[in-house]
Amino acid sequence: MSENSAPGDPASENPASDDQAAAIPCDRFRFPDDPDRWARAWEEHLASIYAVTVARDADLSAGFGLTTYHFGSVLLGSVSAPVQRLERNARMIAQQGIDHILLQFYTVGQSRVANGRRAAAVKPWQLVVFDMAQPVVTEAEAVCATNIMLPRALLAEHGATIEGLHGQSLDYGGTPVRRLFHTFLSGLAACAGGLSAHEAHHLARSAAHLCSACFQPEEGAARAADQLTGIAIRRFIEAELGSEALDAQAILARFGLSRSKLYRLFEAEGGVAAYIRERRLLRAMRLLTAPGGTPRVSSVAYATGFSSQSAFSRAFSRRFGVLPRETGLGEALSGMGREAQPPLFSWMKTLAA
After folding, report:
1. Each residue of 129-171: pLDDT tens digit?
2. Best CA proximity match to 328, nearest among 287, 298, 299
3. Strands 75-81, 26-28: parallel, antiparallel or unpaired by DSSP?
């Protein structure tokens, strides 16, 4: 575990002992000796995930930092950030191949988050949901927050309805279950340096369960039944993405639903056809950027249920703004091979559900 000292970063003052052989991996932002390079170093530290610009008039003297722990199936940590602008665009997303959900619980400062359709203000005692496969721009003041990143599949496994919340801010201070979740995450981040990998595995699962509890649909037998049906359909879709025959009609036949009910279950995603197309394209994105070399575009097209390479290339280009063959940049960040990629990016790429 590397410890990167930072002014005002209490986590760096109490590192885990060197003889703790099973300690979980930790990544910290490292300050250069020259204060004039702090802003640039911060931008470079996050460059594999976001395009970051620190404000020219940002006060860096109070200290800032980012600490992230790898719990196996989730990434957890805390951030104290300067005034900055962060962006993820479609091209960057396609080249990185990251398909996770990030939650940030603000304790200090505020920001404005724009997802292309709407903008939301995020204040202390609010959390913001980021779908890492969707574009977003954040204009942030100096903020402090607790972060957790979870694979989309892990949330789906626990029935969390979080798909349509990208870029939205939600109160957590006055909601008991969300306040409990934040308290759990804050405490977990504070003592993560003393945990073993075995303990981390179970605690990550607990975090996923609590996260699921924060994003359940409204109570009621009908809503509960719809939720179970929606989970079953989504699992069916994931299992059948490689089949050209996967469409609304196949789902209707498999689950015995009416068209109107099927649409209601996927209304937030623009309908089931739009959801299937999105899941196909995101799986293709992951295949194209997976470790071990770039596969043939035609192989990825047929593996994700497209009828032809040309149809796949058109759909991929419309979604991400790049052709499938142009996704290799994520494998060589700033000229680096995978073995030299920043730990935070490598962890996101290999985050397991």
Report:
1. 999 999 999 999 999 999 999 998 888 776 666 767 899 999 9
2. 287
3. unpaired
